[in-house]
Every structure is written in C-alpha cells, then in structure tokens.
Write a structure and sequence with these properties.
The complex is a heterodimer of chains A (about 180) and B (about 525). By secondary structure, chain A is of the alpha+beta class. Helix content of chain A is about 50%, strand content about 15%. Chain A has a 4-stranded antiparallel β-sheet, covered by helices on one side. The longest helix of chain A has 19 residues, at about 65-80. Chain B folds into 3 domains: about 75-205, GAF domain (Beta-Lactamase), CATH 3.30.450.40; about 245-365, no CATH class; about 370-515, Histidine kinase-like ATPase, C-terminal domain (Heat Shock Protein 90), CATH 3.30.565.10. Helix content of chain B is about 55%, strand content about 15%. In chain B, the strands form 3 sheets. Chain B has a 6-stranded antiparallel β-sheet, with helices on both faces. Chain B has a 5-stranded mixed β-sheet with strand order 8-10-11-13-12. A two-stranded antiparallel sheet of chain B has the order 7-9. The chains are: A alpha+beta (about 180), B alpha+beta (about 525).
C-alpha cells in the first residue's frame, strides 16, 4: 500500500479529530513502521486496517464510515494535487479513467505494486456499472471515491452496491446513475 | 541538526514551527509526486516506443526475409515451407504447419495437411503431427476451418480448452497452449492456412497477428506473381508452337503448290508424248512386220541368185554377178539381221517411254476407279509378296500389323503407292538387311510405317525425295517417278507421306491415310480430274 493513503488518513484525522486521536491510534496499533509515514514509501496493507480499527474504537464510528470518508478525502486531495486528471472531464468520464489514474499514481513509484482493478459496463450513457476486484476488499473506499467525484463535479451520483466481496461475491458491483451537474444530490 | 533532539529545553516544538515543517513536507512530497509521475509517463511512452519499434523491426525482418526468399524462383511448396519457417523463427513460436485447400467430390473446399512443418523440437509434437496429417477439416471446423470460413486470422488462447479444437482431445499427452492461424490467399481465394502452436498460453497478440497476416499477404502476392509468370511462359510457348505450325504449314503449302504445278506440267508432257509415241510404236511394229516379210523372201532370192550365177546365158550370169557384188558391198545379209535387232530395241525403248508416261499420269491425276473399303493389312501382305519375290531374296521382312478398320480408297492406286515405297525399301537393303512393316491406328488415321536398316538417306536429298524425276540411281536405272507417284496418290486420298532418315541408320517412310472416305476430290492440281 502506498504511504500516500496513510499520510492522507493521518492528515484527515488530525484535521477532523485532532492530533491526540492519531497519536492514540498509533499507540494502540504500534505499527512496525513506527508510524513514520511518507507519501512515497510502501507499507504493509495490515497497518491501514489496524489503524482504521483503532480509530473506530476510539471514535465509536463504524470502520466502513471512516474508510468511505477517507475515500472522499483522498479524492479531494487528489483533485488538488493532480488537477490535470480532472480537467475537461465529466464525473462519468473521470470514473471511467480511475483505473488508469490509479495505475499511473501507484506504478510511478512502485512498478511492481498490486493494483485494484476496475471493470466497466458502459452500454447506457447515463449510467455506469463499475466492477471492483481487489484482495484488500476496500469497497467502502471506492464508495468514498465515487462520492468525492460527485462532490468535485457537483454532479449527483446515485450509487448502489448490488454485489460485494464482503458478501461472498467475487467482485463488488456498483451501479451508478448520474444526475444533472450543478444540482445537489 | 539531530532531528531526535528537541529544539528547546522543554522538549516541545512551537506550533508554528511544526506547521511550517508539516507544510514543507507536504510540498516536498507533492514535488516528488509530480516528478515521479513525469518520469513514469515519459518512461511508459519510451517503453511503448521501444515495444512498437521492436514490433516494427520484427515485422520488417520477417517481411524482408520472406520477400527476399520468395523473390527467388521457388515453388509454391518451397514458399509455404519458408513462410512457416520464417514466422516460427522470427516470432519464437516453436511449431508451425500448413493446411492446403482442396475440393471434395461436391466441389466444397476442405483442408488437408500439406505435410509442411517447422519444429523447434519435433519430439513432443510427434503425436500431434500424426493426428494433424490424418485430419481433414471442412469450412468452420477446428482452427484452420474457422480461418477458411472467415478468410481471416484467428487466435485461440488455450487450444486445450477451446470447444472447436478437436485435435486437442486426440493428443492428451501434449502440452498444448495457444494457437493462431492465418489464411494465405491467391487471387482473392484462400488456398492454404498456416497455423502456429506453442505450449504456453497467451492472450491474442494483435501486433503479432497483424504482422503474420501482412506476411501472408506478401506471400500471396509473391505466389500470384509466380503464377502469372508461369502463365505467361505457357502462353509464349504456345505462341512459339503456333508459329512453328504456321511455318511448317506454309512450307507444306509451298510444297503442294510446287507439286501441283509439276502435276500440270506432267499431265501436259504425258499427253504430248503419248500421241507421237503411239504412232512411232505403231510404225515400228509395222516396220518389223515388213522386215519379217522381207527376211521371209530372202532364201528364195538367194536361190534365184545362185541359179542365175550358174546360168549359161551370159547376160543373166553377168547381172547375177553384179547383184552378188552389190549384196556383198552393202552387206545385205547383215543389214537384214541387224534391222530386226534395232527394231526390237526401239520397241523396248518405246515401251519404256510409255511406262514413264503412265507413271507421270499416275502422279498427275487419279485414274477412274471405284472407292472400296479396303483391308490395308491384306493389301500390304500381297504387295510384300509381289515385291519381295522380285527384289528381296536376301532380306528379312518383319510384319507388325495392328487391327485396322477398313479404309475407303482406290485400292489399285494405294497398292501402286505401297509398291513404290516398298520397292524403295528393298532397294536400300539389296545386299541384305531388314525391312519392317508396321501398321497402327492413330486417332482417325491409319498409319503404315515401312522401315529399312539400309544406308539411310542423305539429308540433302530428303526434301527432294518426292519430286518427279529425282533419283539417286545411275541414269537409265530409275525413272525418279516411283516415290513421286506414291506421293501424288496418298495426297489425293487426303493422307500424307513422310520420311525420316539419318545417314547410316536406315529410313522410315510413314504413310498416313484417313479412315473416313476421302472427300470427293483432293486435287493435287486443278487440272487433275
């Protein structure tokens, strides 16, 4: 896992819940990295899961909610860091390019890192079906990304997860419907 | 500065300093992100370029080698073998094979192994090869059948799992991975399918497929060029043959024309000579009979002279003496005797003139006479008897007669012609040798070949052989009309007569006569009627 996700988690927690909460979570988890996260390094996948679990304990929030928040936060941070990916695209077009964007942003530093895979069903221009396959099973993060995209483009996106890795399916299936840009969801 | 040491004694960092530090880290990370991405994108595009260059190099190398090879004068089989070889060695696919398109009894195309293979290592593929060479595919069946049906390349990621790859089940031991096949078309028609196999499994490689398809198109073009060249060569050959035929026809026409004018001349000469010869002969015979009567009276006259000489009458005796002196002076006895011999010789000479005239007429025009269905073997048999008795005591006659249909002809004329040819042959082997007579049916003609193993014919004489009065025998021993009259007869029957000979190797005369009735008149000359 790229350190970027962990530095963003750190940043989000510090901003929203405060310094202490992050410090307490680190104390609980005691990650092998010592909590020294930089965006460019790679870390054990388990550290993210353990931190999220610890944070859920401390805050009494569901872990999935935290991960979805992180997805939204990541999307917003990404839009600031790499505006070129977002320019001249609709929400649907951006979602269609997610696979490619993730590919570049992960592989550029770690050519052999494993990647989540998105497949698309695109027959209907107002809808989009995204199929998510990843051994990390972070579909809640994907939901956050979709919501982040909706917010960034001010385009309402109704989403439904009709299959899920957590329910024994071999992929998660998100059915998305796009509203008019500029209208609140 | 050691980052582990606190910046002041209390061990805490002022908030502003911390935030500054945090912001600096974010900015450096952002920079890292950007630079890393730039590098990555540049690297990816470079890699794509390298890949496409490698692809291009592979493509060019394959096309170059294939084109260079097929540019040579190679057969279709060699070109197909080369195609499989080049594709395998350039693409590193270990096994390749060619199926050829053929037609079944209903004219439907099907594919049968050409027996052309390329193996990196034939050992593991032995069973597959056997199965392949024993399998015929129809349109749509198996990998080659699919390619034939669509006239387009096909790729099977896993031949073992493919529903339409029947050969896999027949070779359970073989490590069989992916397969692909391309059509090879000639003038828009698929004539062969080249298929390639590997033991690894791989997804369709569009670039490889495209390259091999391009190569197969090049191959098709090369084969088309070859086919066109071959056709052109055939046409040139045909033109050459036609030209030769035309020339020989022209020569024949000239020959016919020559013989036709000779025919006219011969007919005229025969006519002109015939009358004087007839009355000279008639007069000479009359003269001979007069002479005979004169000689009949001679003994009486001689006795009268004896009596007169013995006469007592002086006048009578004087006159008798004068008469005897005159007889002795003029050799009357000798004159009487020699006149008879002279007349006999003259008559023999006249008969020869008559024979020459008859032969001339035979060369020039057909005699009247009925057409009859004739057994030429029978005719030949009697002709051999007639001529051999007279001429060929020392020589061996061999017969090789095929069963012949009856030939409608003027039997007496044909007999005459065959006599002439046979006489010629017997004369060639007068000192001993063999004359072979062979008959056979060729198409709608009967062919009679008469060969001798005599000295052969001087090449300079070959084209004059049938010309009237041409003879190689000493003056007075041959009229030079025998073969020319045979020529005239055979030509009038719509046939032909040819001679083949090499000095020292004998000669063969071939007489060809049509089985069908000759057309009413095949004139040798316009006056021949």
């Amino acid at each position: 896992m790229r350190g970027l996700v962990l530095t963003l988690l750190n940043q989000m927690v510090e901003e929203r819940l405060g310094f202490e909460v992050w410090e307490r979570a680190l104390e609980v988890v005691r990650p092998s990295s010592g909590g020294v996260y930089t965006a460019g390094e790679r870390y054990d996948d388990a550290e993210l899961g353990a931190l999220v679990a610890a944070l859920a304990d401390i805050t009494a929030l569901p872990a999935d909610t935290l991960v979805t928040d992180l997805g939204r936060y990541t999307l917003a941070a990404f839009a600031r860091m790499h505006p070129e990916h977002f320019r001249d695209r609709s929400a649907r077009e951006l979602l269609l390019s997610v696979d490619r964007v993730i590919h570049i942003e992960v592989r550029k530093l770690h050519p052999d890192a494993s990647l989540p895979a998105f497949e698309y069903e695109t027959s209907d221009p107002d809808r989009l079906v995204m199929l998510y396959r990843s051994p990390r099973r972070m579909c809640a993060f994907a939901v956050g990304l979709v919501e982040g995209v909706a917010r960034h483009y001010a385009t309402p996106i109704h989403h439904r997860e009709t299959r899920c890795l957590h329910r024994g399916d071999d992929h998660c299936r998100f059915e998305l419907a796009f509203g008019e840009p500029g209208l609140a969801a | 500065m050691n980052p582990a040491s606190p910046p002041d004694e209390s061990g805490t960092v002022p908030r502003a300093a911390f935030d500054r530090e945090r912001a600096a880290r974010r900015r450096s990370e952002q920079l890292l992100e950007e630079r890393a991405r730039e590098l990555f994108v540049a690297n990816e595009s470079l890699r794509a370029h390298v890949d496409s260059l490698a692809q291009r190099a592979f493509e060019l190398e394959l096309l170059h080698d294939l084109t260079a090879y097929t540019h040579e004068n190679v057969t279709r089989t060699q070109a197909l073998q080369a195609f499989v070889y080049f594709v395998c060695t350039k693409s590193l696919w270990p096994t390749g094979h060619v199926y050829l398109v053929e037609s079944d009894d209903d004219g439907e195309p099907r594919l049968r192994s050409s027996g052309l293979w390329h193996f990196l290592d034939p050992e593991p593929w032995a069973a597959f090869r056997k199965v392949t060479e024993g399998t015929v595919f129809r349109r749509g069946e198996g990998l080659p059948g699919r390619v034939l049906a669509r006239a387009a390349a096909a790729w099977i990621p896993s031949a073992r799992d493919d529903a339409n790859f029947p050969r896999a089940a027949l070779c359970p031991e073989l490590a069989l991975g992916s397969a692909f096949a391309v059509p090879i078309a000639l003038f828009g028609e698929v004539v062969a399918v080249a298929e390639f196999f590997t033991s690894a499994r791989s997804e369709p490689d569009a670039a490889l497929l495209r390259t091999v398809e391009t190569a197969s198109m090049h191959l098709g073009t090369a084969l088309e060029r070859r086919a066109r060249t071959k056709e052109l060569e055939l046409r040139v050959d045909e033109l050459r043959r036609v030209n030769l035929t035309l020339r020989s026809t022209q020569a024949q026409l000239v020959e016919s024309e020559k013989f036709a004018s000779l025919g006219v001349m011969a007919a005229g000469i025969a006519h002109e000579i015939n009358n004087p010869v007839a009355f000279v002969t008639s007069n000479a015979e009359t003269l001979r009979s007069y002479l005979h009567q004169l000689r009949g009276a001679a003994p009486d006259l001689r006795r009268l002279l004896e009596v007169a000489l013995a006469s007592t009458d002086a006048d009578v005796a004087d006159a008798a003496r004068a008469a005897r002196a005159a007889c002795e002076d003029h050799e009357i006895d000798y004159l009487l005797e020699d006149s008879g011999a002279l007349l006999t010789e003259s008559l023999i000479g006249l008969r020869r003139v008559r024979d020459v005239v008859t032969n001339l007429r035979r060369f020039a025009r057909s005699d009247d006479g009925a057409l009859a269905a004739t057994d030429l073997n029978g005719t030949l048999e009697s002709v051999i008897k007639i001529t051999a008795n007279e001429l060929a005591a020392e020589c061996d006659v061999r017969r090789d007669f095929a069963e012949l249909p009856p030939v409608r002809c003027h039997p007496a004329q044909i007999q005459q012609a065959l006599i002439q040819v046979l006489v010629n042959a017997f004369q060639a082997v007068a000192d001993g040798g063999t004359v072979s007579v062979r008959t056979r049916v060729v198409d709608d003609h009967v062919e009679i070949a008469i060969s001798d193993d005599g000295p052969g014919i001087d090449p300079d004489h070959l084209d004059k052989l049938f010309t009237p009065f041409f003879t190689t025998r000493p003056v007075g021993q041959g009229s030079g009309l025998g073969l020319s009259s045979a020529y005239g007869i055979v030509r009038r029957h719509g046939g032909e007569i040819r001679v083949m000979s090499e000095p020292g190797k004998g000669a063969t005369f071939v007489v060809r006569l049509p089985v069908a009735e000759p057309s009413e008149e095949t004139p040798l000359s316009s006056s021949a009627a």
